[in-house]
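Please go through the sequence and fold tokens given here and tell me how the chain folds. Record follows.
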Amino acid sequence: MNQSLLYGAASLPEKPVHGSPFASLSDRWFELLLITIVLLVTTVAHALIGTNMIVVHFFYLPVIIAAHYFGRSLACTTALLSVLLVSTFVMIDPERYMGSIDSTIMLMFHILAWGSFLGITALLMGTLSNQRSKALVEVREAHIGIIEILSKYLSSADLYTKSHSMRVSELSVAIAEKMRLKPSLIEDIRVGALLHDIGKIEISTKLIKKAAALDEDERAEVDAHTVQGADLVRSLGTILDSAIPVIQHHHDHYSADSKHDGLHGDEIPIGARVVSVADAYDAIITDRPYRRGRTPEEAVAIIRQAAGTQFDPAVVSAFERVITLQVNDLEDEVDIAAAHERERVPVG
């Protein structure tokens, strides 16, 4: 966290949350829309083109797309719908499909064979897609586990920031969900938040634990942990590439007028802007060797004051709503506990 936060910052008017209603649409809805459009286009082309059985093979396209994006269930459903559509066209105008076929019975046999192969294709492609998705989930869970181990190892070097990365990750995810970011982006933010301080491995434990204020050279060494962390994660290969922008830019200041080096405004990746607020909040409320932690109310006020200068106002707005909900939930739990306690106390 930048030390300027603890001593206040010029406030700017808070802006509304960016984005339109379409920003909340997930990739899954887009993929489903794509399958629907392809199926409709195939159906229209099938209805308009006056040709024979060759045209029905166009229906393999929406089935393969459904299998790739959604797996076996939707692929089989798309195949079944395709067979029903073609069967309807055949019953309405069987002559269109006859071609070299000399009888209606043979035509129905061809339709049955085509439908069977379409169903088998949907089943096999969908099964392969499901297995691939399961493998990806397992790999993702495995590397998340490794990341959590790394973050706990990093925290163990400094008792004052113990579990800091875990708390920042949880709050970052809550903010991202409140902003209705895409699930894949939220996952990247979660990983980036867990690793946002990984560069401090390169910094001496003595410096991290130092109780007195840091001098200019020491401050520069600590600030360099963002670049060092990004380089460290980059050296591990491509599997964590999506976390690198969060690690490298989570200390960049939002305002272009800031003297702080780095990116500014919307140039800063949205994940880094989210983690910046969550990181600052946890740092402000946590006791440090050189100061006591502030109350949550004081921390929110400090961050609100820095909206538009150090922080993205849209992220700050979502952050305030998350903290308000957390406080309300905590008060409700306290009230419920108190009510249960009163019920146990005998009257008279």
